[in-house]
Hints:
365 residues
Amino acid sequence: MKLGIDGFSYADLNDYARLRDLAGAFDRFVEEHDADLFRRFDAYRQGIELTSPDESALLIAVARELALFLTQLFHIDPGVAALKSRAVRDAQVARLKKDFVSRRVAKVQKVERDVSAAANLLDAHADDPELALALTVNRLLDREKESPGSAKDDLDLLAEWAAVGWKEGRFAGWTSFRLPQPLVFDRLVPTAPIDDVRFGGDPHHFRKRDGFKLTDARMSQREIADEGDPIGALALVIVDNPMCPGTGHRICNDCMKACIFQKQEPVNIPQVETRVLTETLALPWGLEIYQLLTRWNPLNVHRPHMRPYNGRNVLVVGLGPAGYTLAHYLLNEGFGVVGVDGLQIEPLPISWTGANGKVCPVAIR
């Protein structure tokens, strides 16, 4: 496999010393693209203190550069371009929700006129009416911003039309019309009565099992955009949750319900993590990109790349999420790790895993 950064082979991505060199190549890449961003990021790595919002904004900006770097490294421009194009469209819907539905439509109290003429204002996107509404509204919002009052009548008409349709259930399933609801802390899990004594889960949320197949409904790309660049987002996820393929939305539900400071439904972080992971894995060399980020991630300034073997070995007993996550951290700190579990662990082909630091895993497009 030929990489897109001069001087590096795929085998180098599994070598400690070469990962340090790759970190240097990334630094040069960022400095050439945005010298000011590199200066601020380097100061952050040296220990300069930032507020939490400033730290987040800096890491997001560097994550965009990291996504560009990995796109070049693995030659995946067409696949990433398609994802970004879809993200741009979905960003229109996210803006519709924030600037129009929540701020205007939700505040309409009563509609006393015929609002059917609003349909004539919509952009022609028959296959995606939600996008059609978003494009129309956002264009009017831009005009209103440039010339206050110039689009007020059309926006008011569309707001009343949308309020009527919302009440009638016309927008069921639309991301833009699903607003966060207040949390009631003594009813975190919705229930429905069965009889005078018993109660159970809300039947609207039931789903039938199909043997051992997955039956959970994942969020769509648009729903995730409501909550970017998938590679950059995944790199940020991996800073704190490198083993995200084993957690995601099927395990981490409790974290959304546990915060006592929330007053409304939280952002669905587990679904976001699952989606950005699957979007990345679907790219050519997607698995290889994920694996690289678990042992080399410039956004993790405390451990940007794995360390060499330190001569100490650790036995990890039990390879559930906690066990294999511990094993991963120990490996990146330079320990040798042996894992055991009560279930039988089948060996994988050496071509998938590599062996003894001498056999490199085979990259699979």
